[in-house]
Amino acid sequence: MNHNEARLLIGAEPHAPPSAELSEHLANCRECSRFQSEMVALDANIRRALEGAPAGAANAPAATASVTPITGVRKAKKEKPTNVWSGWALAASVAVVSVFVIWALRPSDTLAHELVAHVEYESDSWSRKQAAPPAAVTDTLAKAGVALDMSSDKVMYARTCLFRGHLVPHLVVSTLRGPVTVLVLPDEKVAHRTNFHEDGMTGVIAPAPHGSIAVLALGSASVDDVAAQVQQSVRWLPQH
Amino acid sequence: MGGTRNSGPETPVSSYDGSPVGAAAGDPIVTLFESMRPDLLRFAHWLARDRALAEDIVQEALLRAWRSRDALKEQAAARAWLLTIVRREHARLYERKRLELVALDDGVELEGMPSPPGPDSELDSLRGAILKLPLEYREPLIMQVLGGFSTAEIAQELSLSSTAVLTRLFRARNKLRSMYGLTPAPDDIDSEGAA
Q: In this predicted model, what pLDDT tens digit does every residue of A170-208 receive, in sequence order?
């Protein structure tokens, strides 16, 4: 397998388990191995980007000529590297990769923002008038390894959503303060409780025995009491 | 996406008049389809790049799915089946109206643009760059990442060879890669995917 063949496979399916032939090539090729690391990180960002709405899509971005660069570094494609600048180019590349990797691996600095975007995208979930079928609620939660000790007629919406590359339970619970969204996030570990306000929503992300739980509602009133109630109601099933 | 594959949707319908005739609100199949509407809408939105258009596509696709519901062999495969119908509906619309008016196969132009203030801006920029990918690259990428389709399934759906799909997926990411200031991998692959 040559470099081009290896990079074709990596670029096409960054998260696929490498074949024996590709594994052997990667073990002996630092450049392709680095290319793979970069592509895996890039793919994680592509996944996050696609899980949100394509903002401004209706305004025909195709007709515009430019977009804001992600790393703040000019595109390398059009720059002709020379020997004089090769040292600087190498240093810049390392810096760019470092920034990129740090950003890609950041734990939760945009978690709240992505939660709000996700909830906004499914805003129709707040308009449900009837309780979700209890079996659907149980099934949705079980997929994440949790159960809910709560009257099933309070859960108005239950579905499994793709969030940050993972399938997570997305519930809407009827409360005295109106519909409240609950997302159980087994793969999002947070160190401490975080409250946030964004786009007319108030929310809290709280640590849980496995990952975290997010609670969001419209308005500026605190959802701490609801979050506490949800935390008490969520049972993590043994197999998780 | 494993599991039993389903038959394709029935012959195209040219119009609809709201809810499927005979579809009851409490019908389990309707409930199942409706529960997937957000996913379908997101998928259609990325394909069509227009929210209103995406809603039309999903509405038409759901109607078509309901009419072809007997072809759905197992509910576990409903999501892939519905996404396929949405993709075909978009393709039909694309063929009818030629909505892709601008060739964009030169990737994104970044020269002279301001630096981003933070990660959120980067994500938005990445979304913009994905939207600017030509449909031939954007479509398999969305099918793979958002739809969860395998390369073989994408190849079958797009009537391409698996190698051609791999090439398109590689080129899509290679174009996005360049916007990070990372040197794109050499693209010495011909249109059929032979390196």
A: 999 888 878 899 999 988 888 889 998 887 888 999 998
Enter the tokens of residue A61.
């971005």
What pTM did the predictor assign? 0.54
Structure tokens at B153: 């399934």
3-state secondary structure of A74: coil
Separation of alpha carbons B82 and A66, rounded Å = 34
Q: Is A195 exposed, middle or buried (0-12, 13-18, 19+ CB in 10 A)?
A: middle
- Same domain assignment for residues A116 and A229: yes
**What are B190's two structure tokens?**
């011909």
Contact B58, B86 (CB under 8 A): yes
Same domain, A77 and A49: yes
- Among A109, A140, A156, give the residue marking a domain's end: A109
Together in a domain, A95 and A133: no
What is the tally of structural domains in chain A? 2
Q: Does A107 touch chain B (CB under 8 A)?
A: no
What is the distance in angstroms between the Cα of B125 and the nearest Cα belonging to chain A? 6
Collect the ranges in chain A with pLDDT lower than 70.
55-88, 90-91, 94-109, 152, 239-240
Cβ-based contacts of A52 with chain B (< 8 Å): 123, 127
What is d(CA B101, CA B108) in angstroms, rounded to the nearest whole number?
17
Residue A89 CB neighbours (<10 A): 16
Interface test with A, best of B1, B82, B122, B136 (most A CBs within 10 A): B122
Cα separation, B129 vs B59, in Å, equals 27
- B8-32 confidence digits (pLDDT tens): 443 333 333 344 444 555 677 878 8
Q: Which chain A residue lies closest to B150 (C-alpha atoms)? A: A13
